[in-house]
Write a structure and sequence with these properties.
Length: 353
């Protein structure tokens, strides 16, 4: 630890990437960035974070925002439960903490959508507290540096990694002038940054690593073996057909109900097909009860969500039986742009020009 921590801090001081949320210690801004960065790349997050902070600059603004606005700002980032949890957490902060972001780690951990890693990231980055973090990048760095076998997501190995992460950040807290240099914040960020830029899953850039002389995996030539992750589950193919139904200059869209994936987002009428089924053309009964007929193909598009590989075949269609449903609306092209659509169906909107 005595050699590892200073080496990481020195490397981070000159190699940290420029990110807008690194220009502030505001816990709200850090919190939003950490939630957005979950399973999403930095380059994707930056414009979303900047737009979010312009429109919802603090906890009070987020808490007071309509759910539709929150979802619209999040549109395209995926995993929309993150946005709903941010909204719910902001309302809890207003109710319980008077709108001030909580200071204590235990209080941060109680916020909806915040787990041990996210709470540690916020506490260390915003407040410079010696709170450990452990995400995929940090797991990879620690298993290689310390030569740890076993699946890092397994209980015993995971506990060992959390303990090491805690020792590292506590050692950083004991560095000279640690408060002034924000050593806890920078140590945790250095582990994440090293995993993202140097200690990558495949073909790590070991010659550029600041701790290569201390790394067990490098010494024993085991960087390709570690971490010893369990095999991923097989992907599952799913097929959908979506219908663009137009009346005059208005299009029929529907809002996904609460309690389902992507709840509250908008989409075109659609149904799921069995793997080998032929796309319907004559009379199609939609889940809403409407009867439609496909007329013109608008092509197909692909989309991935977790382990699912989704193909959506898109058709213009006409209504054969008109039985209005409560979650359906006829909207103009302008309104299509204002609504928050699922990622796949936003691609359909783009095709309509």
């Amino acid at each position: 630890m005595s050699k590892l921590v200073p080496a990481l801090l020195e490397w981070f001081a000159t190699n940290a990437r420029k990110m807008p949320w690194r220009e502030t210690h505001d816990p709200y801004a850090v919190w939003v960035s950490e939630i957005m960065l979950q399973q999403t790349q930095v380059k994707t997050v930056i414009p979303y974070w900047e737009r979010w902070m312009r429109d919802l600059p603090d906890v009070a603004a987020l808490a007071a925002a309509p759910a539709a606005k929150v979802l619209k700002l999040w549109e395209g980032l995926g995993y929309y439960s993150r946005a709903r949890n941010l909204h719910a957490a902001a309302q809890l902060i207003v109710e319980k903490f008077g709108g001030h972001f909580p200071r204590a780690f235990s209080d941060i951990l109680e916020l909806p959508g915040v787990g041990r890693y996210t709470a540690g990231a916020i506490a260390s980055i915003a407040y410079n507290d010696p709170a450990p973090i452990l995400d995929g990048n940090v797991m990879r760095v620690l298993t290689r540096v310390f030569g740890i076998d076993g699946d890092p997501r397994g209980k015993a190995t995971n506990q060992q990694l959390w303990a090491l992460a805690a020792q590292l950040v506590e050692h950083a807290a004991n560095q000279p002038h640690s408060a002034k240099t924000r050593a806890c914040s920078h140590l945790n960020q250095s582990l994440m940054e090293l995993g993202a830029l140097v200690c990558t899953p495949r073909q790590p850039a070991c010659p550029a690593c600041p701790v290569r002389q201390l790394c067990v995996a490098q010494r024993d030539q085991r960087t390709q073996e570690l971490p010893a992750l369990a095999p991923r589950g097989a992907t599952t193919a799913r097929r959908f057909v979506a219908f663009v139904i137009t009346r005059g200059n208005r299009h029929l869209v529907q809002q996904r109900p609460s309690g389902v994936v992507n709840a509250g987002l908008w989409e075109f009428p659609n149904l799921e097909l069995k793997a080998a089924a032929t796309p319907p053309a004559e009379r199609v009964a939609l889940p809403t009860g409407r009867i439609v007929r496909a007329t013109t193909s608008l092509g197909s598009l692909t989309h991935s969500i977790t382990r699912y590989r989704i193909t959506v075949e898109v058709f213009r269609a006409e209504l054969l039986e008109d039985s209005p449903q409560p979650d359906e609306h006829w909207v103009s092209a302008t309104e299509l742009e204002e609504l928050a659509f699922t990622s796949a169906h936003r691609k359909i909107v783009a095709r309509l020009g």
